[in-house]
């Protein structure tokens, strides 16, 4: 997953969390938070991979 897709997953998760909050759907809120966390994790992994490439490893 690229950095752009990771950011998109975070945005999608934020929207889902907000929609869940507006609808009073705690399951949807939790799902949205989960998607945000997955996006952040993938973004951090991409950052780490970039740093490894730059350091010559």
Q: Largest sheet at a glance? A: none
Number of strands: 0
- SS field, number of helical segments: 2
Global geometry: rod-shaped
Helix share, percent: over 70%
Mean pLDDT across all amino acids: 94
Radius of gyration: 14 Å
Class from secondary-structure proportions: mainly alpha
Helix/strand order: HH
Low-confidence parts lasting 5 or more residues at pLDDT below 50?
A: none
Proportion in β-strands: under 5%
How far apart the termini lie comes to 20 Å
Q: Main attributes?
A:
single chain; 57 residues; mainly alpha
Written account of the structure:
The protein has 57 residues and is mainly alpha-helical. The chain has 2 helices and no strands. It has helices at residues 3-23, 26-55. Helix 1 (3-23) packs antiparallel against helix 2. It is rod-shaped. The model has no long low-confidence stretch (mean pLDDT 94).
List the helices and strands and how they pair.
Elements: H1 3-23, H2 26-55
Helix pairs in contact: 1-2
Short summary:
The chain has 57 residues and is mainly α. It has 2 helices and no strands.
